[in-house]
């Protein structure tokens, strides 16, 4: 869609062997702010789509790591984005709501009392 070499993908895991359509893949630990910044500068990045996270079930098994990845990771991304004036997209989740949130026609602004550290970390940001 954006052309060859226009999208840089990153993660801390190896690509599956059948992921042949991805032509620019890099190891990047979002807990390391300087390596985020290095990639942004070296690749002249103008937009970050930030997906890295520990989701509900995994997050509950290691709450300290979930807080690191989900909170410190977002903080690192936002600080680099602010410094280099780039756009950021970070998805939210239904996990940001909780049992006390109205279930019918849930408004955008409503009670958010999540019951997982994953949901809590989304509400924080
Ligand atoms: N899957 C869904 O249904 C859903 C729904 C709503 C929102 N989202 C959001 O979309 C995003 C991605 O979700 P997903 O389903 O692809 O999750 P996923 O678990 O498949 O992917 C998360 C990725 O983060 C990576 N990661 C973990 N620690 C890291 C680190 N220190 N540095 C770099 N990468 C690291 C993992 O290796 C993994 O590939 C999340 O922010 C999630 O909240 C997902």
From TrEMBL:
Signal peptide: none annotated. Belongs to the NAD(P)-dependent epimerase/dehydratase family. Pfam families: Epimerase. InterPro entries: Epimerase_deHydtase, NAD(P)-bd_dom_sf, NAD(P)_epim/dehydratase. Residues 24-124 form the NAD-dependent epimerase/dehydratase domain. GO terms for biological process: L-threonine catabolic process. It comes from the Eukaryota. The lineage of its organism: Eukaryota, Metazoa, Ecdysozoa, Nematoda, Chromadorea. This is Epimerase domain-containing protein. It comes from Caenorhabditis japonica. GO terms for molecular function: L-threonine 3-dehydrogenase activity.
């Amino acid at each position: 869609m954006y052309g060859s070499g226009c999208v840089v993908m990153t993660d801390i895991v190896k690509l599956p062997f059948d992921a042949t359509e991805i032509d620019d893949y890099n190891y990047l630990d979002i807990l390391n702010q300087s390596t985020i910044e290095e990639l942004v500068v070296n690749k002249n990045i103008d937009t970050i789509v930030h997906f890295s996270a520990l989701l509900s079930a995994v997050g509950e098994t290691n709450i300290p790591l979930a807080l690191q990845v989900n909170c410190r990771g977002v903080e690192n991304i936002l600080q680099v984005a602010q410094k280099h004036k780039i756009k950021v997209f970070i998805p939210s989740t239904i996990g940001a709501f909780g049992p006390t949130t109205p279930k019918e026609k849930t408004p955008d602004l409503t009670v958010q009392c999540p019951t997982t550290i994953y949901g809590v970390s989304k509400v924080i940001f």
